[in-house]
Amino acid sequence: MATVQMACSPLGGPPREAPRELPREQGAGFRRLSARLRALRPDDSSAARTEIHLLLDQLISENYGAGGGVAPEDVSTLLVQACRLVPLNQNHLVSKVSQLTHHLLNTLQVIVDERNLDFLLAYTISAIQQCSSWTHVKILQALAALVYGNGSRCQKYLPDLLGKSGLLMKLSDLAQSDPEVRRAAVHCMANLCLSVPGQPYLEEPYQNICFQAFLTILQSPKSPDMDDITFCMLLQNALKGIQSLLNGGKMKLTQTDELGALLAVLKKSMFHGLPGINIEMPTVLYPTPLPQYDGRPPVKLQLPESSASRPAMNRKKKSKIKPRKIQPGEEEEEEESSGEREAAPVTGLGRANLHEGSTQSPSSLAVQSLRLDGSGTAGKDGVSSPFSSSGWKRVSSSDSDYSDTEGGMQSKMRSYQAKVRQGALACFLSTIKSIEKKVLYGYWSAFVSDTPELGSPQSVSLMTLTLKDPSPKTRACALQALSAILEGSKQFLSVAEDTSDHRRAFTPFSVMIASSIRELHRCLLLALVAESSSQTLTQIIKCLANLVSNSPYNRLKLSLLTKVWNQIKPYVRHKDVNVRVSSLTLLGAIVSTHAPLPEVQLLLQQPCSSGLGNSDSATPHLSPPDWWKKAPAGPFLEEASVSSPTGSAEPCWLIRLCISTVVLPKEDSCSGSDAGCAAGSTYMPSPMRLEALQVLAHLAKGYFSVAQVYLMELAEVICKCMGEADPSIQLHGAKLLEELGTGLIQQYKPDSSLAPEQRVPVTLVVLFWTMMLSGPLPRALQNAEHPTLQASACDALSSILPEAFSSLRSDWQILCITVLLGLNDSKNRLVKAAASRALGVYVLFPCLRQDVIFVADTANAILMSLQDKSLNVRAKAAWSLGNLTDTLIVNMETPDPSFQEEFSGLLLLKMLRSAIEASKDKDKVKSNAVRALGNLLHFLQPSHIEKPQFAEIIEESIQALISTVLIEAAMKVRWNACYAMGNVFKNPALPLGTAPWTSQAYHALTSVVTSCKNFKVRIRSATALSVPGKREHYGSVDQYAQIWNALVTALQKSEDTTDFLEFKYCASLRTQICQALLHLLSLASASDLPCIKETLELNGDMVQSYFLQFLKSGAEGDDTGAPHSPQERDQMVRTALEHISSVQALAGDTAKRAIVAFLDNILTVYFDSSGS
C-alpha cells in the first residue's frame, strides 16, 4: 500500500500547489507524473491497478496551459507506456487510457509519430473488438484523435476500419443502437479523410466507401433514440468528412446521380433547424433550368412555438423592435440565441422601397442596424470554416457552458443547428470549387431563386439564409457560397434578357436568368439594409460586386445599377475599414462592367451631395456633404483649375471621393477596426487607398469623358502616389497613368467618333506628360529594387500620345528613348518584356519612324530580346518586330526614298534570320514572326534581291511561311501567315511565277481556302490569292487552273461547317472568293479560257447565284478590304467582261464566247432585278 499512499499524496496535499509551480517550469507536473508512470511495470495486482487509476486521473486533471511545455514525443511515449500497462480485459482502465489519449492529443495539439502510432492504433482497434460496448465511445474518441492528420500512415489498418466488415463501418451503420457510438465512429471516419499537405491521400476505393457512408447519414432522418444535439454533431461530422474528401482528396464528382444526391442533402442541411423553414427535398437533384418540384408539396412555413398562438397584430408590433446592440465580448452563441432576426418585416419594408424605384439611401432601419457596434464580435462573426483547427475536438453533450434552464438548452440547440448549416455551406463551397462551372450552372435554379414569392423549394435559396438566418456567421457562409457561384458566371449570365415584355405560353431561359439576376439584386440590397454585423456586411458587398461584375446590364432593363449605386453610397464612410474597402470594390465593379453604360454615365453626372447629405437616411458615420472638398496641404489643387469643372458643371462625386481617399490625411486617429493603418501613418488605411486608385483606373478606362475633366488633378495624384515609399501605392499610381494615357490615345485615333472640340487639347496632354516626366516617373523606371514597378512604369510610358510626344522638349524625348533602350537589357524578364513592348509602340510614332538611327537601335534591341529564354519576353519582342516591319512598309510609301537607301542591308539579313527562327517558336511568338517575315520580304529592294547572300535567306523565309500556312497551329498564326504571303506577293522585285517556290506557295493557299475549319483564315487566303497584279505571276496554265478550280470549290463549300460560330463569316468568305475569281478573270489569257469554261459548265448555276449575291449585297462586317459599294462591285464584273472580250481566242475555241455570255447574263439579271 506504500505505492498507493505515495500516489495519493498529491491528492491529499494543497490542491493549488502544482498550478503555482507551472510558471516556474512549464510541464513539470506532466514530466513528474510521466516518470512515475514509466517506472511502473505490468502488474495485475489490485494495488497496481489503483496506482494506475490515480496516475491517469492526475494526468487528465493536470493543467497544461497553452502547450504546457511538453514535447510531442514525450506524449507519444507516455501513451504507449500507459497502453502497455493496461490489459484489454480491464474495461475501466481501457476507458481511462482512451480518455487520456483523447485529452492529451486534443489539448496539446499533438500528432503522433509513425513509430508509436502503429502500436497505439493496434491497441485501440483491439480494445474496440474486445472491450464492453459502454467503453466504445471513449475508445472511438481516442481513435479519432490518433488518426487526425495521420490518415496516410494508417494504410495497413484501413481494411480493419473501413473494409466490408470494418469496425467503423459497423459502428456507423444505421443499425447501430447507441447514437453516441455512431456519432463517434463517424467522427473517426471524418478525421481519416482529413488531408495533410505533402502526404499521400486516402486510396480511391476507401474515399468512395467514406463518401457513401457520409451521404447515407445525411440522407437519413433522425432516429427516435437520438437527441437533437447528438444528431447535429453527427451531421457536422459527416459534412466535415465530405468536405475533406473534396478539398484534400480532390474527389471528382463525375456521376450526375452522385453529384445530384450530394447537392440535395447539402441543400436540406443548409436549412437545418432554421426557424420557419422546413423543406422536403428529393433524393437526387437533377440539372435543369426549369422548375422541377411542381408536383411536390409547398414549403411549410412554421412559426416559432412561442409566437404561434399570438394574434397577427403582435407580429406587426414586433417588426418595430430595434435590433439588439451587441456588447463587446459577447459570445456568438449569445447573439444567435437572442431571438431570430425579424427578416420578414425588413424584407417587406425594403421591397416596398425597391419596387417603387426609390433612389433614397437606406431607411431608418439601416441606420439602427449600422449603429450596432460589431467590433466586439469581430473574431466570432468573421467568415471561417466551421471546421477550424480545433473543430475535431469532441465536445460531449455533458461538456457545456450553457445553463441547464430551458432557455439555455434552446440557445445551445440553436447554436448546434447553426453549426450544421455552416458545415453544409462550407461543404457546398468545396463542391462548387471541385466541379466545372458548366456542370454547376445546371443546378442554378436549385440555389438561386428567380421569384420573390414563396411556395416551392425553388424559392428557398441561398438568399433565404442571407435574409432570415439568425446567425451572422451562417449568413456570411451563405454569401461566400453565392459569391463562388457568381464568380466566373459572365458567360452563363450573358444569355439573360428582359428588355422587352415576354407574353408567351412558356418562360424563355433568357427571361428566367434575367429574373434570377433581378431577384439577386433585390435580396442583396435588402440584406445590405438589414445587416448589423460588419463582417457579414463586408461579405454582402463583395457578393454584390461579384454579381455586378458578371451581370449583362446591356441586356437588362435600367435601374438595377442605379439602386445598387444609391444603396452603397453611405457605406463608403462606414466606421469599419473592411466595409469601406468592399464598398469601393463594388463601385469599381459598377464602373468597369460593360463600360461605358448610359445608366452609369448618368450616375456619374449626379450631383455630389446626392444620397449623402440626408441625415435621416444616410449612415450616421457620414461627414457633411462637402467632406471631400477639404484642401490638402501643398499645391494639390493648383493645377486642377486648368481642367476642373467650372461654373454650373457638377463635379463627379466618385472621382472626388477617390481622390480625397488617396491624398487627404485621415480625419481622426486610426480605430481598432482600421487594420490597414500603419503606425504613424497620416493617410487612410492602405487597402482603401489602393481600392480608390483602382476605381480611378476603371473610370479612366471605361468613362474617360468623365475622368478627362480631372486630368491635371489626377496627374497630381499620380505624382504623389509614385513618390511614396509604398511600392503597392506606386504600382497603382503607374497603372492609373497607363489608363489615362490609353484614354488620350483612343480620343485621337482616326476612327474615333469624338468631335475634335471634345478631345483633351494636345497642349494639355503635353503639360500632363511633362509633369509626369519631371516628377517621380523616371525614378520609378530606374528603381531596380522593384522590377514590377519598373515594368508597370514602362507600360505607362508606352501609353504616351504620339502627337504629344512630338511636342515634348527634345530632352524629354531622349530620356524616354534612352531609358527604354537601357531597360531592354534588364536581367529581370518582366522589365525586359515591358521595355520590348514599349519600343514596339515608339517605333510606330510618326516623329520617330523615319529616324534611321532610332529604328536601327530599336531593331537591334528587339532582336536581342528575341533570343531570351523567357517566352513572355520573346512574345513581346516578336510583336515589336512586327510593328517595326510595319514601319518599314509605311516608310516605303513615302515619296522620299532616303530611308530605304540608308537602312542597313546587313541589319535586314539579321532581321530575316531572327524572324525565321522565331517562326519555329511557340504560337505566341510565331504569329508575329510570320507577320514580320511578310513585311520584310515586301520591303526588300531590287538592290537587296540581286545580292547572292539574300537569295538563300529569301528562299528560307518563304518556305517558313508556306509551312506555317499549312501546319495545324493556332488560327491566329495561320491567319497571319496567309496575310504575310499576300504581302510577299506585293513585292514586284521578287520572281513570283518563275521561282520554284511559286507553286508551293499557291498550293498552300488553295489548300487552306478549300479546307481550313476557320473561315477567317479562308478569307485571308482568298485575299492573298487575289493580290498578284499580272498574269505571269500566277505561273503556268496548269497553275492558274488549279487556283481557279480551288476557288470555285471553296465557293461551293462556303457554307459547309459544323461550327455555328463560323456561319457569320460565310458572307465575307463568299464576297472575297467572288472578288478573287473576278480578279483571275480580268487577267486570264487565251490558254486559260478552256479550263474556266469547263468549270462554268459544271458549276455555272452555283457560281452565278453567288456572283449575283455579291453584286446585290456584298459582305456585312467584312474585314478583308473588299469593295462594298454597288458601283465598285458591278465595275469589277464589267472589267472582267471587257478583258475576256479583248482576249484573242484560239482558232475554233468557243470558251471565250461562253464566258462572255456567262458574265453578260449575270449583269443582265442583276440590272433587271435592281430595276436599273
TrEMBL record:
Residues 1-25, 296-345, 376-409 are annotated as: Disordered. Residues 419-600 form the DUF4042 domain. Residues 313-325 have a biased composition (Basic residues). Residues 385-400 have a biased composition (Polar residues). Keywords: Phosphoprotein, Repeat. Transmembrane segments: none annotated. InterPro entries: ARM-like (IPR011989), ARM-type_fold (IPR016024), DUF4042 (IPR025283), HEAT6 (IPR052107). The keyword Transport does not apply. Pfam families: DUF4042 (PF13251). This is HEAT repeat-containing protein 6.
